[in-house]
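Assemble and predict.
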Amino acid sequence: MKRIYCLAALAVLFASTSAAPAIDVAPAGAAACSGCHPMSRAVETPFTRLTGRNPADIVTATQEFRTGQRPATVMGRLAKGFTDDEIKAIAAWYAAQKE
Amino acid sequence: MTRHHVSRRDFLKRTTASAAAVTISAPAIAEGAPGRVVVVGGGFAGATCARALKRINPRISVTLVEASHAFTACPFSNNVIAGLRELKAQQFDYKRIEGSGIEVTFEPATRIDTDARTVVLSDVARVPYDRLVLAPGIDIRWDGLSGYTEAAAERMPHAWRAGEQTLLLRKQLESMEDGGLVVISAPANPFRCPPGPYERASLIAHYLKTRKPKSKILILDAKDAFSKQSLFLAAWKELYPDLIEWVPLSKGGRVTSVDPSTNTLTTEFGSHKAAVANVIPPQKAAHIAAVVGAANKTGWCPIDPVTFESKLQENIHVIGDASIAGGMPKSAFAANSQAKACAAALAKLLAGEKPEEPKLINTCYSLVAPDYGISVAGVYEPRNGQLTDVKGAGGVSPANAPRSARQLEANFANGWFKTITEEVFG
Amino acid sequence: MTARALINVPPKAKRGEIIGIKSLISHEMETGFRPDATGQPIPRNIIKEFVCTYNGVEVFRAEFFPAMSANPFVSFTTVANESGTITMTWTGDNGFFATESVAITVE
């Protein structure tokens, strides 16, 4: 038990004194999209690529899926699970991704 | 520092002194390194997680422990059974994963020393970890259905772990005479791929309709409702009238025993002699989960919905089919989605940061015919300690969609398989 | 009201043999405690009684309650004494009644 406490203390020390930037992970929900929307150019699929796109386009499309304005199969059902802020964060993250 | 992994052969070359060095798990965090993660299981969950970790933080040392050199994917394996696809299209190797800075160890994990935080591979080879990810998939409950043993599965294939079993079922269907009875036994929840038995029945029906039109399919089910039920039932009526009969639990559908010597399945109220019997038996988290004490009485692994850390074992995270993931089904998409969320949480934890609440997705396509796809989708988030459906989101394909929409979903199903396997193994 | 009941009784038995009997009936077993979409309670609709007779003699009786699952499955044993008929009846709310009979030969 003592060893664990000691390690925990060390971990805290590192977290507080290290100059390394915080770990940058994708915003909530973003990582799940690449199950269908390919990150890689190598794959040929009917799904729209999200990487490197104009974020405003992703936001508009997702919002239109959510309201039903844009015809969809699964995206109409999935978009309803995300708030505007979440959609914006996901769009910005994909826009910034390189392949 | 020595290599953090040692194979049996390497080990034998070494001296006792150096062997001692590799079994000591000095936590990497104390040395300023971002940490060591060992992932056990190289399927959709495990391989995704290993890769996602490296992508988030290349400095994390990642070891993937997987017994097999080739992975055979279950999604689309029903197409193989129905002769619509070859097994080769389901198989993937780990070369690209090895090439991305992940150490892949082709040995089964035999046990885990949680005190020393070490995965024991064989008698001598050990891999230490700071955090362990268990993604072992499922095992068949060989004690779960009277008469259904490993030997029985050679006569009455389950084909629920893709590979030889898939081909066996296909061969039996191919050699069956026209007019034969195909019996599929479907288990109670939870089990891997909830719509799988019904997609399988559909695609076998597609095969029989053209090749052996006098044959019939009987589904004996241990439950009264199943995934995408109304869509399947409507499609069967439209595409395969009178070819598929579904007997739910409340109509005596639960199979209580099987007899491989006569190819007979017995329910509480009758017996059915099959020309081809596909027994999809009850399942549980794969053996290693129970060995390490991460599985509870249900046979599956309870987890924290933010970090996927086991509720029973510290520093061990469970993802994919082996986990109890609240509302999320046991699907390849869910496994992939969980793996990426788990990787993000691990990267944060190893850096001493607080993991962010994830949002997860599942999308699950089923083919009722090669050009007829239906889907179920869901969005999930942690709530009250569980991964819970986000209200108002998700659901199944519309009931009265035109055939063009079914065709489109069939195209998306094919596209999804290409995308996900490229992300995981490509 | 029609319901589909399944029963399983061995067609043949030796005199004095203990035989297993199984029954399953399709019934929603609505508890009466659940609200509908408007918040009104859905009226109770359950099977209240299950009786099994062997050549007219009652050998098993069960009282059912709202906590019982839909499509109740009942399994019990009795002693095979003589050839004849085994009859099962289910009675419940809203005049629900179902019955099934099967012959048994005792040697």
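Chains A and C do not touch (no CB pair under 8 Å).
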